[in-house]
Design goal:
Number of helices: 7
Structural class: alpha/beta
Largest sheet: 6 strands, mixed
Helix content: 25-40%
Radius of gyration: 17 Å
């Protein structure tokens, strides 16, 4: 998005880079690991070297119920790079409430999925999965690993969805549906699935 000409990016990440991030998190290098630069700060510095006209606001904070509304306030669009299910549901609920489109992107092992969430038009995260899974019930990046090609492909698809939205071509199938994209570059395998708003969704339908 920085290379495509985005004007302003707010980066939210409380973590610092670790060596086992570097194969898949391409904004960081070993210097960032040694100096324990917060990811948001290191990413902002690199992005501004790519595009000096870009305004970047790095926030090395944890997204939580107390601050999530302020973190998305004023944003045209939210991009998801989270690795925590409960925080994704929190992001979904506040974006739907405030009418801010956001793009879900998840990667685990060799597979990934991308789903655009367009409040008031297409489905939200709770239309697909009504509640977060119980803590500890899913494999993690640590236990299952992440293929760097999978994360790069998910990020590219998220960026493509974002650019479509920003130039006025939302990725809608019809007024109540979007396509989710599941990909597995190891096979390789790609599958598109039409996802519709659910009348019993407690978030986007029942508000």
């Amino acid at each position: 998005l920085a290379r495509a000409g985005a004007g302003f990016l707010r980066l939210v990440d409380r973590d610092v880079p670790e060596l086992d991030n570097l194969h898949r998190q391409m904004l960081y290098d070993e210097d960032d690991v040694r100096e324990r630069r917060p990811k948001a700060v290191a990413a902002a510095a690199r992005l501004q070297r790519i595009n000096s006209a870009l305004m970047v606001e790095p926030l090395a904070v944890d997204a939580n119920p107390a601050n999530i509304a302020s973190l998305v306030q004023g944003m045209t669009l939210v991009m998801d790079g989270l690795d925590h299910a409960e925080t994704r549901y929190l992001l979904n609920d506040v974006c739907v409430r405030d009418g801010i489109p956001w793009i879900y992107g998840g990667v685990l092992g060799v597979a990934g999925i991308v789903v655009p969430v367009l409040p008031g038009q297409g489905p939200c995260l709770r239309c697909l999965w009504p509640e977060p899974p119980p803590p500890g019930s899913l494999p993690t990046c640590v236990s299952a690993g992440v293929l760097n090609a999978a994360s790069a492909m998910v990020a590219a698809q998220q960026a493509a969805c974002a650019i479509r939205l920003l130039v006025g071509h939302p990725p809608l199938v019809d007024h109540h549906a979007v396509e989710s994209l599941s990909l597995d570059p190891w096979q390789p395998h790609f599958r598109k699935t039409v996802v519709r708003r659910q009348a019993d969704c407690p978030c986007c339908h029942q508000r």
